[in-house]
Specification:
The complex is a heterodimer of chains A (about 325) and B (about 230). Chain A is an alpha/beta fold. Chain A has helices spanning about 15-35, 70-85, 100-110, 120-130, 135-145, 170-175, 205-215, 230-235, 250-255, 280-295, 295-310, 315-325, and strands spanning about 65, 90-95, 115-120, 150-155, 165-170, 190-195, 220-225, 240-245, 255-260, 270-275. In chain A, the strands form 3 sheets. In chain A, strands 7-6-8-5-9 form a 5-stranded mixed beta sheet. In chain A, strands 3-10-4 form a 3-stranded antiparallel beta sheet, with helices on both faces. Helices cover about 80% and strands about 0% of the residues of chain B. Chain B has helices at about 5-10, 25-55, 60-70, 75-85, 95-115, 115-125, 130-160, 175-180, 185-215, 215-225. The radius of gyration of chain B is 21 Å and the shape is elongated. Classes of the chains: A alpha/beta (about 325), B mainly alpha (about 230). At the A-B interface, helix 1, strand 7 and helix 8 of A face helix 4 and helix 8 of B.
């Protein structure tokens, strides 16, 4: 189980390799030394306005507070929500970059925030039911629907998922005809698998790969959490397979392939709006569901890349996505 | 249970003392990283410090190197080198050498510079060459400071060699990084305890070395100055 809020996505510049790799490391350094990886991203927090005298008190008249966790991708999705809702004439206040789930969850529970983009699996395991074994999107959502506090509900999940994935280079994928984790069966014994230290012991790590897919790898190499050490090791062939988050922009820039996970080794982490029930009306619900319907992992990956690697602004990326999908 | 109890329990359980993840293997790896980094730092810093001290010039360089070394973020440098070299397994060497150089350089330079000019003048008056002045007068008199620099470097490097584990290598840092990642705090506590003991052992070793190496006439002075 990983905590989305602790992610640090390095931000390389696009063209020259030496400069780019140096930037990865510098970004990594920044992430290592500062707890707030996305502190530079608070530029959009006052972009919206509200007529309500106290923005923290939601009303049923269509004025809502959209919050976000403190990492770039989550803030981007929140910005998409804000943009889409404003397009429907709803008054929105942004309260981005709040913190980790432990910080914002009590806020939405009492209605100080109306809407926040969540990841269904992580929401279930960190705030609702840590002992759950639900893995598929449907199973996770049905548990959430049953167990969320009475004040909260989830809306439709997007197909987009930000979660661990078993990832290989494009070259390896082509050579050994890999598209799914199951395809690793004939080659796993020759492959070194890398991931964060706990990947060796946690249920959805090396033990899960053996139990669920029957895969035993040559050896395990401890790396970092889908950060520069992992990316460099996979690129350089130090490991042939690595645990990489599905929305890591280097999947695009370094031509990695995230293998499909048909047996749900990794629990679903669909982007799902978590809302304070009394704060939302049918227009809001249908608007957010329309966004979820078109938000795919690939779209999210492309937007993360635009944001983190090409340094586009949140508002630019969010409104570009909505226009492209015909929601604006 | 207290920190000491869980560390002690982990340290004394038999399974920690054999196998590829056992304490002996990790300790040897850790000492290799430390030894190689110190050796290289010594090859660079000792001649440079002696030369600059003897010639009485280069103080600006020494101060700059020292400040640079202190300001350098070790972990950041490690990741930078790792990424720039496409994951070279020797990436750990650069930050550790960079960490080890300043104390050796500064103390060597200051040690030689601080030798009483009356002594060196007398040595020259006796017909010694510059090389002989350095070897027979300046180095022996500077020995306490040379050892001090080496000791500071050794202790810093032995404590910092834990970072090798960050790029997937071995050493005692594995216990800290793996333990933290897996919520096995007894492993973290035990691993940290081994590193502390190692640092204390190095301190003891240098105390011993001082008794053996430092000339008798300098011992009292060395003791008061340290």
């Amino acid at each position: 189980m990983r905590n989305n809020s602790s992610r640090c996505v390095p931000a390389p510049a696009p063209k020259r390799t030496a400069i780019r790799t140096a930037t990865v490391a510098v970004a990594a350094l920044a992430c290592l030394t500062a707890a707030a990886c996305s502190s530079s991203s608070s530029s959009t927090s006052s972009s919206s306005s509200s007529s309500s005298s106290n923005p923290l008190v939601p009303s049923a008249t269509g004025s809502v507070v959209v919050g976000s966790a403190n990492f770039p991708e989550n803030e981007l999705i929140a910005q998409i929500y804000v943009d889409a809702l404003q397009g429907k004439g709803i008054k929105v206040t942004s309260k981005f970059n709040i913190g980790a789930r432990e910080v914002y969850y009590p806020e939405i529970e009492k209605g100080a925030i109306t809407i926040i983009p969540e990841y269904n699996g992580a929401l279930l395991t960190t705030s609702v039911d840590p002992s759950t074994t639900a893995a598929s999107t449907a199973a996770v959502n049905s548990e959430l629907n049953a167990k969320l506090p009475a004040t909260l509900e989830i809306l439709n999940s997007a197909p987009a998922q930000d979660k661990d994935s078993i990832t290989v280079t494009q070259a390896t994928a082509t050579k050994d005809h890999l598209t799914s984790i199951s395809d690793l069966a004939p080659v796993a014994k020759d492959f070194v698998i890398g991931g964060p230290s706990e990947f060796l012991t946690r249920a959805d790590g090396v033990p899960g790969l053996k139990k669920i897919y029957g895969l035993t790898f040559k050896s395990f190499q401890p790396l970092d959490e889908s950060g520069p050490i992992t990316i460099t090791s996979l690129q350089g062939g130090k490991v042939q397979v690595a645990d990489v988050f599905t929305t890591t922009p280097q999947i695009i820039t370094d031509h990695f392939v995230s293998l499909a996970d048909p047996k749900n080794l990794f629990a679903a982490q669909n982007v799902t709006p978590l809302v304070y029930k009394k704060g939302v009306n049918s227009t809001i619900v249908s608007t957010l569901n329309a966004v979820s319907a078109v938000l795919t992992t690939d779209a999210l990956l492309q937007m993360d890349k635009a944001l983190i690697i090409d340094h586009a602004s949140y508002t630019e990326v969010a409104s570009g996505f909505l226009s492209q999908e015909g929601l604006k | 249970m207290s920190y000491f109890q869980i560390a002690w329990q982990w340290l004394t359980s038999a399974q920690q003392w054999h196998g590829s993840d056992g304490i002996p293997v990790r300790l040897v790896q850790h000492l290799q990283y430390t030894g190689i980094a110190l050796g290289i730092a010594l090859l660079i810093a000792l001649p440079a410090g002696l030369a600059m001290g003897h010639l009485r010039r280069g103080g600006f360089v020494v101060v700059s190197v020292a400040n640079f070394g202190r300001a350098l973020p070790t972990l950041g440098l490690l990741v930078l080198i790792f990424v720039l070299t496409s994951g070279s397994p020797a990436s750990w060497l650069v930050p550790l050498v960079a960490l080890a150089i300043p104390p050796i350089l500064v103390n060597t330079y200051e040690g030689v510079l601080g030798v009483d000019p009356d002594l060196t003048d007398a040595a020259r008056g006796m017909g010694m060459t510059e090389w002989q002045v350095l070897r027979k007068v300046e180095i022996p008199v500077a020995t306490p400071l040379l050892l001090l620099g080496l000791r500071i470097s050794a202790i810093q490097v032995v404590a910092t060699a834990t970072i090798a584990a960050y790029i997937g290598l071995g050493g005692l840092g594995r216990y800290i990084i793996d333990g933290l990642a897996r919520d096995e705090y007894n492993v973290v506590a035990g691993g940290a305890a081994v590193i502390v003991l190692l640092a204390l052992a190095i301190q003891a070793l240098f105390t011993l070395l001082r008794w053996i190496i430092v000339p008798v006439g300098l011992r009292r002075q060395a003791q008061t100055s340290q």
